[in-house]
Amino acid sequence: QFNLREALFCLLTVVSIFILSCPYWRFLPAMSETKRCDAYRLERLAAKKTREEILAEEEKERSAGEGLKRVLSLWDVVAYGVGTTIGAGVFVTTGVVAKSTAGPAIVFSFLAAGISSLFSALCYAEFAASIPVAGSAYTFAYASLGEFIAWFIGWNLNLEYAISASAVARGWAGYVGDFFSAVNVSLPYWVYNITIDKQSVVNGTSISDVVMTLSPLAIVVVLGCMCLLLFGVENSAKANLAFTIINLVLILFIVIYGATFVDVQNWSDFFPYGGGGVLSGAGTVFFSFIGFDTVTTLAEEMKNPRRDLPLGILLTLVIATVLYSGVSLVITGMVPYTSLSDDAPLSDAFVARGAQWAGILVAFGSVSTLTSTTLCSIVGQPRIFLRMSRDGLLFKPFGKVSKKKKVPVFGTLVTGIAASVLAFIFDISSLTDMISIGTLLAFCVVCGGIVINRHRCEGNPRPYLSPILLLLFFVGSVGTAVSLKYNAPIYVSGIISLVPLSLMIALSVVTFKLGKKQSIPDTFKCPLVPIVPCLGIFVNVYLTVSLSAGAWYRLLIWTALGSIIYFGYGIRNSRIYHLQRNQKHKEEAEEKAFNESLPEEHIVVDVGMKTPGVVRSEKSPLLHDMRQKSASGTDNEM
Predict the structure, then answer these.
(1) Residue-wise pLDDT tens digits, 598-609
(2) Those residues with Cβ within 8 angstroms of residue 363's Cβ, 6 or more apart along the chain or in another chain
């Protein structure tokens, strides 16, 4: 069925890519056939950067005055993490899941979701501490799985951040309207909710169908946050810290004051939907924890990233879990869970207990919280753009920072304008369907990257074994998740689940045999590798499979559009490709010069060689000794 909103989204995406790529079309004819063929070799997709190379590049950029400004403290980062994670869900999701899925036991759903998120958070913490540069999962994937996977993750994360900011801005506009309504002030609907109808006549009756809704007010908050970010991360961090403190105080006050209305009789049936309802609720509320990964995009702007990044990630998760659990426990104690409303459960609960003014406070808290969430959602995308551009995979303007404020101006402008357009055109339901799939896949990649990096060491006699086992574990996890989603017989799901379980045990055996030979970082270490990363992969795969088919269609469309940029521009301008090609030419030139300096009787031409004009020497003991002497500078005869 034709969907106008989805068609507009695809059209806007194509037009944006067309406009951004126009300045670079003139370079395409300049590429010679040799370079083009060399760039498109299959092994290029798996090209990796070592940790040392990534850190050296970042240090070189900083010494050249092109790096970001290191001004953020631990609490600035925690404020960004909490601001991204604690959104409207704290006021809405708690009531919806409690009413229809878990009942008062939703508190255990949040605890289960928090523990599940912890698996991915620990993996993020290890990567962030060992590779403290902007780019988040994109950079981590580049260091562990290769260039194409890194591009795939970075490209889809950019979509997630833009849509997340748009969805939050659209929700912000709605809550502003609710707040003014709560204080008996009516805003004109054209300010925040313009409805476009389609009139049709059925059996002589005129019916009005809503085609789409527009929200001018959503543009205001997105562009306002964009302008604040352009003034520098230091200023935006202060504003966000202030917003976060206000939000935490409001939420804590609501929880403490709401506790005075708790009636323990409302908890008499604590598990109305059983253990299955708790797990189902955990799968739903898990998405409320997505956002802690945003802090890793700020790595290059932190004063002490190796210490503060892991702490920031884990503190964000702990604070979010405590707040969500506290709100859910109080709200189900204030009124029976069956009486909770779907739209504004928290404020309605206070109204039901006679505290009208608390409803106004909740509405104000929603506006304040979503302002912070919009700001934090926008801050990550320009920094991923920055790192992708400096790696040569994205157009050069994205890789430039302002001289004074050290802000990625072009990326911030593109992010802000794109998010404001999406927020203006699409409603929340259309936007939220597009969120989460890219982030969950990024979580899978980061968890898998931890295992691969640990086993990539000189003492590993079979370096290929771990990636193969990990890939099979991923496939087995997909099979198990699919069987659970479609309610396969319990014995079928049980048999299929034995596959990832046995593979996790096999990975554990490989890890145990490697022992101290593993590449273990000297900073924060993820515990219980590979068990924790494998559990993280399984949780994220299960949640990814549970998403709607529409989310997968949008992922495929967005990835296909991004592949045009990657194979048309990125793969041929990749920084690592040019470094490897230059190194190869340098080695060939040195070998040619060395061979030309040898006596003719010790040189033969390798007829089977691929590079014309380069001669190679015979593998004789005499010639080997001459090479060794020449390399060490002790050959005085030649």
Answers:
(1) 665 555 544 444
(2) 175, 178, 179, 182, 347
